[in-house]
Fold this protein.
Amino acid sequence: MTLNPNLPLVYHPNYSFSFDPKHRFVMSKFANLYQYIYQQGLINNNLYKPDIGTPSALELVHCELYLWDLWHNQLCEKSMRRIGLPWSEALMNRTFTAPLGTLKAAQLALESGIACHLAGGTHHAHYDFGSGFCMVNDLAFTATTLINNKQVNNVLIFDLDVHQGDGTAALLKHNPYVFTCSIHCEKNFPFRKHPSDLDVGLVNNLTDSAYLNIVKETLDGVITDINPDIVLYDAGVDVWEHDGLGKLDISWQGLEKRDALVLKTCQQAGIPVSTVIGGGYDRDHLRLAKRHAIVIEQAAKL
């Protein structure tokens, strides 16, 4: 099958930087993903680069004092432990640029029907604290920006990361124009869940067939119910059976079928869809990049 070489892609070189290769969070995955997608012939004049971000833009959804403390390395040790990443200027640059990348991808999707961000999905970030490798919430920021700018009337955030999107749910719980849906492993981080508009908790070791049925039924249902103007799709690959932090048994082929299902469902309904890569954990860094590339490859087939 011929892949679409004009699929809009969003990436910034500051997403990856020198970082402990043994850390659970694979900071190199963004650059590796870019290189892999380039090698597949999917990058030419279709690559867009977001502006360098600063904390002020994120005040739309986050506490100003928290952002100031984060930016200036003034968070207490306990708060940094909860985030799980060592502070650096390079980390701050990527942290505040990536949400602008997610927004850019969403705006491109509104123009072309589909677009992919080679990062994003920091759904554990809350109003005034970070958690689980997430410091600011790109999904909440993007949805709120689109609504405030009157670019859309309503947004569906469809989160298929193995971990529940607690920060996204908490940040948007009072926003009637954004519908948050999370399908996740119930007995996994975060252990205190914040209710989304729709949560589907999965049992441990769920396999492809049952998982794909749940994804299809859930997505069909929410699209029918809310008829969103855009879907922000968190295509987390930590549902894979050999993921370092997942507890599900979804095969590689299952990941491909899942992403194809979500993207085709949105396309057939005439709804623009923008993707972020979400979570994925693997000591084989190149294999992880290929896993994250699945959603981009599936989008390029449409």
